[in-house]
Amino acid sequence: MTAKPDLSAADIAKAVAGGKLSALDATEAALARIKQHDGALNAFTDVTADRARSKARAIDADIAAGKDVGPLAGVPFAVKNLFDVAGLPTRAGSKINRDRAPAERDATLIERMEAAGAVLVGALNMGEYAYDFTGENIHDGPSRNPHDTTRMSGGSSGGSGSAVGGALVPIALGSDTNGSIRVPSSFCGIFGLKPTYGRLSRARSFPFVASFDHLGPFARSVTDLALAYDAMQGPDADDAACTTRGLEPTTPLLANPVSDLRIAIAGGYFQKNVFPEAVEAVSRVAKALNATRVVEVPEAARARAAAYVISTTEGASLHLDRLRKRPSDFDPAVRDRLIAGAMVPAPLVDRAQKFRRWYRAQLAQLFRSVDVLIAPATPCTAPKLGQVNFNLDGVELPVRANIGIHTQPISFIGLPVVAVPVPLEPLPIGVQIIAAPWREDIALRVAYALEKMGVVAAPAPRGL
């Protein structure tokens, strides 16, 4: 058996565990695809080939010895370069961080993926310090959209979107502060999971906004997404925000019916500032789920504004010493927003935090009568690389700041979301499947049902 690009993680793991495919062959196939296509995509900043081959050989030896190698046996994966990878400086998309000493230990989520049998093949391009929605990076160049390499991959986990959308690896890990898993998922036509805030450990990853930061997986199928998510669950004392909840596996629940779920369409704010393709994508998903109820998410616009205030001030605080010592080594677009954040008056931050508590309570009330909300993931399909502005509801607005217009009000209070790809022509676009806190299982069940109906799917890369 050969490891073809269209093999899912589940297929690879089954074949490796069953002796029909070696983990080394699966790894070599991924490394070959990276070598063949990454010149066009610019998804990878580091390829850990020697490490990957060593891990794969160890898996094959364990299988030969009759040992259980885990649910992700031999599955190649890669991580956004803000994850600590032992032996590499954790660059977080920046020039400054390249001067850091190499990490001595992997991030917790890498350790857990490899404990489940997965094989790390490299680190991925990203927007500088995760303050980005485009996938463009002035130090490493932009990661490119696998369906049209003249277009954005989305950010800040752009390399993760490119690598999975381009079928270089079946699974990648990224981070989402204000939308950085959901935006690349939408632009690159793949599935992404932003779990509940605190669900997955962030230990040994470079932060952006500690009170918003989430880590999570990308994949080309819901089953693969759930397999990766389940492998990474569990408490971790090394991340103070990580839940103490026990494991709550979702993979066994994927095929459960969704007919009993109360599914609604997010109205008002979430039906504004959208291009026709976003409207069509939400309509297709809603129709497939027989969702006709429209509910208002109270003060979503204010939630987005408050998210901006907290993001820019926390980010500025984190980077203040670097801004003072090495301002010229920042991406100017990132530097200027961080400087602006350092100047925001404290009373505004206090008001944003108070509003956040109110907003969380309002959404908790809403989820008493609704199990799932449907909303656009991005207002449009992937813009052209370098595009500065677009027109939203008749207003010319900057692209970089407004791609996350529909994601920010959701991550603001840490709700779990699965971004599902609707394969429109000529480019795919994502829809958010939003659930109540700790109910990733529900969001994944809905995504799985949509996938089985053929409404959502990760299209083959068209730009390679």
3D structure, described in words:
The structure is a single chain. The protein has helices spanning 9-17, 23-41, 49-64, 108-115, 158-165, 182-188, 222-232, 276-288, 300-325, 332-342, 346-366, 399-402, 408-411, 440-453, and strands at 44-47, 76-80, 119-124, 144-145, 148-152, 171-176, 191-194, 214-219, 263-266, 294-295, 372-376, 389-392, 395-398, 417-422, 429-435. Helix 5 (158-165) runs parallel beside helix 6 (182-188), helix 9 (300-325) packs across helix 10 and helix 9 (300-325) packs across helix 11. The chain is 37% helix and 15% strand. By secondary structure, the protein is α/β, with parallel strands linked by helices. An eleven-stranded mixed beta sheet has the order 1-3-2-6-8-7-14-15-11-9-10, sandwiched between helices. The relative contact order is 0.14. Strand 2 (76-80), helix 4 and strand 3 form a beta-alpha-beta unit. It has 14 helices and 15 strands. The chain is globular, with a radius of gyration of 20 Å.
Secondary-structure blueprint:
Elements: H1 9-17, H2 23-41, E1 44-47, H3 49-64, E2 76-80, H4 108-115, E3 119-124, E4 144-145, E5 148-152, H5 158-165, E6 171-176, H6 182-188, E7 191-194, E8 214-219, H7 222-232, E9 263-266, H8 276-288, E10 294-295, H9 300-325, H10 332-342, H11 346-366, E11 372-376, E12 389-392, E13 395-398, H12 399-402, H13 408-411, E14 417-422, E15 429-435, H14 440-453
Parallel strand pairs: 2-3, 2-6, 9-10, 9-11
Antiparallel strand pairs: 1-3, 4-5, 6-8, 7-8, 7-14, 11-15, 12-13, 14-15
